[in-house]
């Protein structure tokens, strides 16, 4: 199929993009990599009347300021593989990027596009929730800083208002060394995850000082594992403890039942993948 | 309509383009270049892969108006109609194709990949090669011949460098 008619505008500056988006409101949308929007338009699941092309904007910086790493909205997925600051401080983020689609898609798809699209099984929304990221959004009315935990509202629904655009994602750089991992199960390599689990650990030897776990694909938005995270604190991480954490996580979510997988199988995957991801994070220490 | 200048395989033309037209369709209908195949038109098969300023991209997920001033290359630019490119020759000898529908997409995805591996003097594992082609679907070959062709194209050139 082919898209419905629309008007095309290439924005030369952030200000121009914002004023165009303000003018079009509900009828306008930014286009970044087009790797989610264009399929939706070709299938006529989306029919924007105006597209504002933001690809010429200077929003592709990765910058450290103090204890914050700021990732521009136009940072393409493949950038993480060659970014020492990501490898050093956010190993789960780096691990997650490997699971996104295929090389050609990772070369063009952007961070802002992925989180604004808010597919429930996408990796980057999940790692944003995992790392307590802040989403920086702008409109002609100014800037809003939205915690990731409040940004994802439902499947394909975010806290962005019409006319608003993501300009950056900020990740708090951890005070102490963190070990992280991300593992998922998809039907085939590069497909959207049935379940994906990200985990971050602070360890003293084998003892967990702090833990964070998040899951993509279970519910309509990424979910954190509060009870499992609490349970892990102070414990020595062994296969058994990791399994128990997985059980706790699986009990605390209400997985969707859809054509890709039953809720029951998703719950099973949460247990197994939580356990595997925790062990992978710990082993990455060596 | 938006005025758009495109260079396809070295041929530059300025066209009035409706924004909703996909680059894949414009290449096929306005430039009469049929090596761009459209398998799915939503990004999952890789058949429509072309190079935009040298970088592989799905032409079904790209609007022609976005490519104003850009240089686009299709499979025709690789080894011409005689398919003389090393990768094309390796596809032929290793049974990397049967019906050939997917082949232009595979070649355009893989040509820069092979070039980079040769430049770095490295032979990727089969697993890495499969990762490189994970965005391309082939209904005929079962992929073994394609993986073998990539290996052959790289090893031939690496050996050539040593000689
Ligand atoms: C075959 C295939 C497999 C894929 N597999 C995966 C996968 O496994 N995991 C995964 O996560 N993704 C996957 N993707 C999607 C890919 O990661 C996309 O790149 C990403 O979801 C969207 O990024 P984009 O830059 O292409 O956004 P676009 O497609 O340009 O835009 C997506 C949406 O976000 C909006 N938008 C874009 N930028 C902004 C901004 N700065 N501010 C506000 N709104 C904005 C657009 O208006 C649109 O609604 C896959 C895509 C394909 C085609
Ligand atoms: S036609 Fe473009 S990916 Fe299938
Ligand atoms: S050769 Fe027929 S689809 Fe690949």
UniProtKB/TrEMBL annotation, chain A:
<dbReference type="GO" id="GO:0071949">
    <property type="term" value="F:FAD binding"/>
</dbReference>
<dbReference type="InterPro" id="IPR002346">
    <property type="entry name" value="Mopterin_DH_FAD-bd"/>
</dbReference>
<dbReference type="InterPro" id="IPR036683">
    <property type="entry name" value="CO_DH_flav_C_dom_sf"/>
</dbReference>
<dbReference type="Pfam" id="PF03450">
    <property type="entry name" value="CO_deh_flav_C"/>
</dbReference>
<keyword id="KW-0274">FAD</keyword>
<dbReference type="Pfam" id="PF00941">
    <property type="entry name" value="FAD_binding_5"/>
</dbReference>
<dbReference type="InterPro" id="IPR036318">
    <property type="entry name" value="FAD-bd_PCMH-like_sf"/>
</dbReference>
<dbReference type="GO" id="GO:0016491">
    <property type="term" value="F:oxidoreductase activity"/>
</dbReference>
<dbReference type="InterPro" id="IPR016167">
    <property type="entry name" value="FAD-bd_PCMH_sub1"/>
</dbReference>
<dbReference type="InterPro" id="IPR016169">
    <property type="entry name" value="FAD-bd_PCMH_sub2"/>
</dbReference>
<keyword id="KW-0285">Flavoprotein</keyword>
<dbReference type="InterPro" id="IPR051312">
    <property type="entry name" value="Diverse_Substr_Oxidored"/>
</dbReference>
<dbReference type="InterPro" id="IPR016166">
    <property type="entry name" value="FAD-bd_PCMH"/>
</dbReference>
<protein>
    <submittedName>
        <fullName>Carbon monoxide dehydrogenase</fullName>
    </submittedName>
</protein>
<dbReference type="InterPro" id="IPR005107">
    <property type="entry name" value="CO_DH_flav_C"/>
</dbReference>
<keyword id="KW-0560">Oxidoreductase</keyword>
<feature type="domain" description="FAD-binding PCMH-type">
    <location>
        <begin position="1"/>
        <end position="176"/>
    </location>
</feature>
From TrEMBL, chain B:
<keyword id="KW-0001">2Fe-2S</keyword>
<keyword id="KW-0479">Metal-binding</keyword>
<dbReference type="InterPro" id="IPR051452">
    <property type="entry name" value="Diverse_Oxidoreductases"/>
</dbReference>
<keyword id="KW-0411">Iron-sulfur</keyword>
<dbReference type="Pfam" id="PF01799">
    <property type="entry name" value="Fer2_2"/>
</dbReference>
<dbReference type="GO" id="GO:0051537">
    <property type="term" value="F:2 iron, 2 sulfur cluster binding"/>
</dbReference>
<dbReference type="InterPro" id="IPR036010">
    <property type="entry name" value="2Fe-2S_ferredoxin-like_sf"/>
</dbReference>
<dbReference type="InterPro" id="IPR001041">
    <property type="entry name" value="2Fe-2S_ferredoxin-type"/>
</dbReference>
<feature type="domain" description="2Fe-2S ferredoxin-type">
    <location>
        <begin position="2"/>
        <end position="78"/>
    </location>
</feature>
<keyword id="KW-0408">Iron</keyword>
<dbReference type="InterPro" id="IPR012675">
    <property type="entry name" value="Beta-grasp_dom_sf"/>
</dbReference>
<protein>
    <submittedName>
        <fullName>(2Fe-2S)-binding protein</fullName>
    </submittedName>
</protein>
<dbReference type="GO" id="GO:0046872">
    <property type="term" value="F:metal ion binding"/>
</dbReference>
<dbReference type="InterPro" id="IPR002888">
    <property type="entry name" value="2Fe-2S-bd"/>
</dbReference>
<dbReference type="Pfam" id="PF00111">
    <property type="entry name" value="Fer2"/>
</dbReference>
<dbReference type="GO" id="GO:0016491">
    <property type="term" value="F:oxidoreductase activity"/>
</dbReference>
<dbReference type="InterPro" id="IPR036884">
    <property type="entry name" value="2Fe-2S-bd_dom_sf"/>
</dbReference>
<keyword id="KW-0560">Oxidoreductase</keyword>
């Amino acid at each position: 199929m082919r898209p419905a008619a629309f008007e095309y505008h290439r924005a030369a500056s952030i200000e121009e993009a914002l004023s165009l988006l303000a003018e079009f409101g509900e009828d306008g949308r930014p286009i970044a990599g087009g790797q989610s929007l264009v399929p939706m338009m070709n299938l006529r699941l989306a029919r924007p009347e105006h597209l504002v092309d933001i690809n010429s904007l200077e929003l592709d910086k990765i910058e450290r300021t103090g204890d914050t790493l700021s990732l521009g909205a136009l940072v393409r997925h493949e950038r993480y593989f060659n970014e020492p600051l990501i490898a050093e401080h956010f190993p789960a983020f780096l691990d997650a990027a490997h699971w996104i689609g295929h090389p050609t898609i990772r070369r063009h798809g952007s961070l802002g596009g992925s989180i604004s699209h808010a597919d429930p099984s996408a990796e980057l929304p999940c790692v944003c929730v995992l790392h307590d990221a802040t989403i920086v959004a702008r409109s002609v009315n100014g800037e809003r800083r939205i915690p990731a935990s409040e940004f994802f509202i439902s499947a394909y629904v975010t806290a962005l208002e019409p006319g608003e655009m993501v300009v950056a994602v900020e990740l708090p750089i951890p005070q102490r060394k963190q070990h992280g991992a991300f593992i998922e199960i998809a039907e085939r390599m590069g497909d959207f995850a049935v379940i994906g689990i990200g985990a971050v650990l602070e360890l003293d030897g084998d003892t967990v000082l702090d833990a964070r776990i998040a899951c993509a694909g279970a519910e309509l938005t990424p979910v954190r594992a509060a009870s499992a995270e609490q349970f892990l604190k102070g414990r020595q991480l062994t296969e058994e403890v990791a399994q128990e954490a997985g059980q706790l996580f699986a009990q605390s979510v209400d997985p969707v039942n859809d054509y890709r997988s039953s809720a029951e199988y998703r719950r099973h995957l949460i247990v197994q993948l939580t356990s595997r991801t925790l062990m992978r994070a710990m082993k990455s220490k060596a | 309509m938006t005025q758009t200048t495109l260079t396809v395989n070295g041929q530059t033309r300025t066209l009035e383009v409706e924004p909703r037209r996909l680059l894949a369709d414009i290449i096929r209908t306005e430039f009469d270049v049929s090596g761009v195949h459209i398998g799915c038109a939503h990004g999952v098969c890789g058949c429509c892969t072309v190079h935009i300023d040298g970088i592989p991209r799905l032409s079904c997920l790209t609007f022609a108006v976005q490519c104003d001033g850009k240089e686009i290359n299709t499979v025709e630019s690789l080894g011409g109609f005689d398919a003389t490119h090393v990768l094309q020759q390796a596809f032929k000898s290793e049974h990397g194709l049967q019906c050939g529908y997917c082949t232009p997409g595979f070649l355009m995805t893989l040509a820069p990949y092979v070039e980079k591996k040769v430049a770095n003097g490295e032979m990727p594992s089969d697993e890495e090669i499969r990762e490189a082609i994970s965005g391309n679907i082939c209904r005929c070959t079962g992929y073994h011949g394609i993986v073998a062709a990539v290996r052959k194209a790289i090893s031939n050139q690496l050996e050539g460098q040593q000689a």
